[in-house]
Amino acid sequence: MASPAREPERIAALDGVRGVAILLVLVMHGLYIGPFVEHAFLLSSYARVACLGWCGVDVFFVLSGFLITGILVRSKGGPGYFRNFYARRTLRIFPLYYLVVALVLFVLPRPGLAPGADVLPTSGDVAHLLYYQNWWFALERADVAFPLKITWSLAIEEQFYLLWPALVALVSTRALRAVCVAVILAAIALRFWLLDQGFVNTHFLTPCRLDALALGALLAVTPSPRAWLGYAATAAGVVGLLTTAFVGGESIPESVVQQRWGLLAALSLGGGLLILARQPTALQPLFRFSPLRSLGKYSYCIYLTHMLVIEALVACLRALGPQRLAALSQTLSTLGVVIAFTLAAICCSWLLAFVSYHAFERWFLGLKRHFPAGQ
To answer: How many domains does the chain have?
Structure first.
């Protein structure tokens, strides 16, 4: 593992990787303009590639495993190991998360309910409040408020945070490497076994998604691999994902082909990008590109709120009325409309996240000074 002294040099590049990850997710969800384009477009090559943007979540998982494990290893044996870690995570994650969840569940009107109607908390509400909605999605197969569809991945990360610090504290670094390899193999094997048994929601289950988190953790406790391995892993990930989309026939993450093979390709992509971000490669200018780093810096809020933004933009389109929509469709091609909508969603999501960070989140982040991270 690189020494703590080198860590600041790598932060800029890691923000760039976060930017790549959130951009992939935003491009995929730009297709939620679907009601305003022909159904045939959703089968086009652009839509198939855009739908692969779900792999951005796996890039986030790899990054989280890497960063969290690095912090824990550096903190190990020091005072306030557990207290400082959980306090810092709470200050970073909870304020914005619970603000958005409360807004969606209890403030904004729900479809089919009269404004001001009393709404008792449902099992889904409780799941979101206690961070186990990924299990609720997988086992109940119930629908959820549109802006909260993406929070299952945040629940997986929170569940990871509950267990991983204790494991890192208990085992040696050498043993931790072995644990990481075992977790990666076990998660992949479990996914394949459950799919063979007919269970088709493995992508929501925490044990089935620990491979990406464990890969990031493994990269945190091993010397940085050579750049050629990063290039090879990234290329394998991209080729694998495109193959599943055009040969396997489906791009959406709920499809069996993506759960079986797409997740393996996404794992390779996430690991490859992280390796390249830590090396002085030709991709460093990309990772350090200011707009991409800015997306990465504000990626948490962008991820958590971009579905709200998309919902609002769709409402604005509906408000234009049929005649203006028809004129818009004649001015731009279907692809042009989708790209314009996606760019609008990216810009509006970034602006909302910028305001949120500087007007709301920074106050809580400032409190982290009372809980120093590992040195």
So the answer is: 1
